[in-house]
Structures are given as C-alpha cells and as structure tokens.
Amino acid sequence: MRGDLVEVVFPEEEPIRAFTPRPHPLQVVFEDDALLVLDKPAGLVVHPAPGHWDDTLVNALVARGTGLSSGAGRPGIVHRLDKDTSGLLIVAKTDAAHRGLAAQLARRAIARTYAALVWGHVGDALTVDAPVARHPKDRKRMAVLATGRRAVSVIEPVARFRTCDLVRVRLVTGRTHQIRVHLAHVGRPVVGDTVYGQGGARRVTGDLRRQAEAIEAHAGRQALHAAQLRFTHPMTQHPVSCRSEWPLDLREALQAACDDGVQLDRSNPLEYLGFFE
Prior knowledge:
It is a single chain. The protein has 277 residues and is α+β, with helices and mostly antiparallel strands. It has two domains: 88 residues, Pseudouridine synthase (2-Layer Sandwich), CATH 3.30.2350; 167 residues, Pseudouridine synthase (2-Layer Sandwich). Helices cover 18% and strands 25% of the residues. It is globular. The termini are far apart.
C-alpha cells in the first residue's frame, strides 16, 4: 500500500567455481589460438557434474594450461560425448570462437560422423527421425517418446559381419544418447551398450551365439566412436576436417566380429573398410 516500506535483499553472488587441475593424457588432433580438437578417450567425463567435480576433461585441460572460453560450469565445451563414447570433440579457447562454433552447431553446419558396431544387420541406409526425451520411469535413460525433442540420425552400413555390422552414423541433431537410443529403436543396438543393448549377445541364437559372446567379451564399453568432424573455423573461415581411427580398446571386438580378423590386424581398420569414403 502507499507509504509501505519495501526492503529487497539480493542474495550474494555464488562464487565462480574453480576447476581443480587434474592431469590426464590427451590426444590433440588440431589446435590453434582459438580452438582445439581432441580425441577423447572412453571413460572420461567431459565437464564437471555431480559425482565428477574434479576428474573430467575440463580439469585435464586446466592442468594442461589450455585457455578456455567462459561458461557456467562448462568452459570451452561446445558439444559433448558420453563418458564411455570415445572420439573427436571440439573445445573453444575464446568466447568469440565459442559463439561462432555454437552458431554452426545450431544451424547444423558441423558434420559429426560416428562409427558403431551394432548387433544384427542394416540393409540400405536409413534415416531415423524419432523424438527423444528423458525416460518417464528411469531418469538416467533416454527414450523415443512423442513428447520428446526432434532427433534425426542417418545410419549407413559400412561392413557386414556374421552377427553384427559396422555402421556410419551421421548426426543431424544432437540429443543426449541420441545414437544409442536410435539404434536400439530400430533393433540394432550398439555392441557393449549395457543401457540400451537389448540383451547384447543373448539376442543371438544358434551356432552364432559363441561368436557373439566373444565379441561382447572384448567390448568393455559401448562400441561407439566419434570418428570424423568437419566444420568451418569460426575465426579464419577455413574448412577443418579431422579423422580418428577405430580405438585400440575396441580393436579386438572388431576383429572378433570379422571373419577374416587377420585383415583387421592393422592400424587403420576404418580406412581399410572404407568408412571414411
């Protein structure tokens, strides 16, 4: 009412979280003053979050002395990979570079291509256009739901083996767990995926079960790898293209899947199989 005295107390600003340096081996594929592209190993969380405040990629970059763009808890992080997904990831060093990369991501101008070993066989290339949302009963999982955000993945067969296929997956959108959810949605879950695997090797019956079990035994995590990135450098406007071969920790799983494992006993199995074509 008129004449009343109103007192407003603003809460103190929360202090900016300091990121503890935590050294971790990092393989850098491309680097300049504006950004870097690195090949993230499986098992490394990308940015701090509950349960992983000081053992993430961000902590490793701080320990490396890498300058990072500003961000609320996610400095430098333009896009993410799941903890147990390996491969190529862009990190912005400056705010200007981050803004440029984020704009490219928003207009789907960053080409992200993944290699995946999946159960079963993929015929012709297919586009999965299925919305993804948080699972209504398990908050740690995602699911295809009509109420979800639009998610689009393009799946292309690269090599057919007896019990599984090596496929190329191109992201059109980038939702949490999108590739794993979409591949499971079409009945071709990722080998080694304990969340969306739909039974893993147990889905294979008959005399092929033993081979399937051998493949699974060599896949200590989901057989999913971010193998190729193409984008325009936000400062120079030059094209940047990076490749990453099939990771060493999944090499034996791929060899177990291939009838002629000797042919894959090489340092460039993806190139040999024509993945990058």
